[in-house]
Amino acid sequence: MTLPKDRSIIASDVIDRDGIGVEIFCDDKFVIEIFHDDSKRTRTVTLYQQDISLDLPEESIQTFKKEISWDFVDYDNFK
Fold first, then answer.
1. pTM here?
2. Which is the most buried residue in 44, 60, 67, 75, by most CB within 10 A?
3. Is 12 among the domain residues?
4. Burial class of residue 53 in the structure, from the number of CB atoms within 10 Å of its CB (0-12 exposed, 13-18 middle, 19+ buried)
């Protein structure tokens, strides 16, 4: 199923997790989250809908790489 991307939102989460991500919405439904977690030093993709075209996650990853720093926060040297 091909879904048009309505919007992407840059959102931080420092309550349940420690990082920042990109949320992708299609037809006003939350479809994909790509999250950069500084405490776990990971980047994850979560799909909230099945059977989406590969184009949407690929485009979303490009948005993530453009908008979110690739470097993790180094808490040992944080001043």
1. 0.84
2. 60
3. yes
4. exposed
Residue 79 forms part of a structural domain: no
In a domain, 78, yes or no: no
As a three-state string, the secondary structure of the chain is: CCCCCCEEEEEEECCCCCEEEEEEEECCEEEEEEEEECCCCEEEEEECCCCCCCHHHHHHHHHHHHHCCCCCCCHHHCC
Tokens 């979303």: give the residue: 60
How far apart CA 68 and CA 47 sit, in angstroms, is 19
How many residues are given for the chain? 79
Q: Render pLDDT for 42-67 as a digit per residue (tens, 0 to 9).
A: 999 999 999 999 999 999 999 999 99
